[in-house]
Specification:
The chain is α+β, with helices and mostly antiparallel strands and 373 residues long. Helix content is 17%, strand content 32%. An 8-stranded mixed beta barrel has the order 1-2-3-4-6-7-8-16. The model is unreliable at 368-373 (pLDDT under 50).
Amino acid sequence: MNRGPEEVRCLLMRGGTSKGAYFLAADLPADPAARDDLLLRIMGSPDERQIDGLGGAHPLTSKVAVISPSTDPDADVDYLFLQVAVDRAEVTDRQNCGNILAGVGPFAVERGLVTPGGERTSVRVRMVNSGDLATATFPTPGGRVDYTGDAEISGVPGTAAPVVIEFPPGSGPLLPTGNVRDEIDGVWVTCVDNGMPTVLITASDLKVTGYEAPRDLEEDLALAERLRSIRLAAGHRMGLGDVSDTTVPKLTLLAPPRHGGAVTTRTFIPVRCHTSIGVLGAASVAAGLRIEGGVGAATARLTPDDDRDDRVRVEHPTGFLDVVSSVGTDADGRPSARRTAVVRTARKIFDGTVFARSAETAPPPAPSPGGHR
């Protein structure tokens, strides 16, 4: 006898330059395997079009946020990010997502997890994937989230209310390998983690300009193989182990800026070339550019004004992302992040009930790479 489709309360939101389904943890199965199976059916995976679910047929639009009250005294809510593969029955929790993070605070207010605090509300978020903290501040006039405003971010049409996200310094080292530069596969790189494990590479060292369209870079099979080799080796050196089945570390190619920013970037996630850049990835790039002797130091064009206000404009294929980033040294004289903040926007698209594809007609999910943390 066939069961009817599961009904789950869901809020679909655009967060930054991504789009995802936001859920209360209490509305999903507590068992990770059962939860992942349900999310695959909700998003319509595996299917390159995700025609039978909410997914948008691209990694940037096949994302999930799971939110719950936090037991951490330094946070109001816990945020678990899950990347749902498009063409594979796979759900992974091995990374954070700073774009989807932009919608977590508004969602917490929408669901009553946080009481609005006047004209503006700040929500302290613990990112479960890594244990890192962030604080998102956004307008709540009259006790309701206001998504309208004049903030504009590249990669998103129109304007919306600003969501200011502050990241305190993480507990881990800014340079996970302990080195300002590492030579991997005959190329000098800087491995940095300021919220997202990222490998910075000068584009010209890989015989590309760094200004190519993402599709052209994706179709360069020789480049793809080189990047794969570098990523696997960097993963081990950064303490991430075997990263062959994960999406971290990210690889970011650097080139001199063309539009008044500090640097031009092309980021791989891990084989698809990002049409913009992730928030946490940009935070790691910005910090990496400020590390003396790093591979980005010779490529970046940081002006005195940038140094005065700690602003780093990171150019990407569809525009730019501004990061407030300052780097100092720790007690042992090693580079460490002092301040990191970005401005994002978010918008509620719909709030209602999503009906999952029935389990009887869905292919079984593959085991999540690296398991659940």
